[in-house]
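Quick one before lunch.
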Amino acid sequence: MHLLSISDIDVPKALALAAKAKAKPQAFSHTLDGKTLAAIFEKPSTRTKLSFHVAINQLGGHFADLAGAHILNGHEDAHDTANAIAQYADFLLARVNSHEQLAELAAHSPIPIINGLSDAEHPCQALADLLTISELKGTSDGINGTKVAFVGDGNNVCNSLLIGAGLLGLDITLASPPGFGPKGAMISKAAACAQASGASISYTTSPKLAIKDADVVYTDVWVSMGEKENTAVKAAAFEGFSITSELMALAKANAIFMHCLPAQKGVEVSKEVIEGPQSVVFEQAANRLHAQKAVLLMLAGQTGEVNSS
Ligand code: CP
Ligand code: NVA
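Model of the norvaline complex:
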């Protein structure tokens, strides 16, 4: 089993396991004894790399950072890279420019490949975000019906959230400028997930419409790492999409503000909002650790069995 898309994992089970690992970290401290998580990052990272590093250590295993992006760029073919890494490691975490490259690696890999962010999805981030939403907005009925507004670019984070929201039955509205929404294939995938769960997914070009009465307001950078799109062109297209206190005031009074980070303060969100009382960006960052433990445990087939020693 690989985790390339958030739809590759049983999301409710992963969230339950993450919550258990958060509540009782000691109970999981030997669950992955002797296991090695190798990592290849083609782009910078703070949260993804460190949360996985600490997660595997706290589960009893080791982190091996291969560092060199060259590994995926002509060093050898994907077949040989994947099979060689599998001789030493039990999982491979990869942050790549192209999702196709990840899929090719997965097609040849005897060990689980974990998407640490591609141009198409950021499933590990979305799992942590759904954990955060369930902690802060969940009721005894779960989080279905929670109203989420994603305001911004139809990017990797947006795609994983849409699909995750579809799987969990959230009510999500995406506001993007014309031409900057998710690709058709992602919309179809999220819609198919939503059909089974009863989630509501809608699209608008009006940030105000999306945010009105929302429980959660989420944004991300307008220009993602490695994106070729011109920053000035995008800034012009996204005029009016910056999350300010005025826009936040349209959401419910107890709404939370979310951002995966890193953020461009004063661009997609004002400093006042992201550093203000409604912001839960560090709760999200903290939950990366627990969500990443759940990912490792599920990929290792350790679904919730706690360590007794
Ligand atoms: N949110 C996130 O993935 O952060 P990093 O780029 O720092 O890993
Ligand atoms: N959309 C952003 C997310 C960073 C975690 C990017 O790809 O740069």
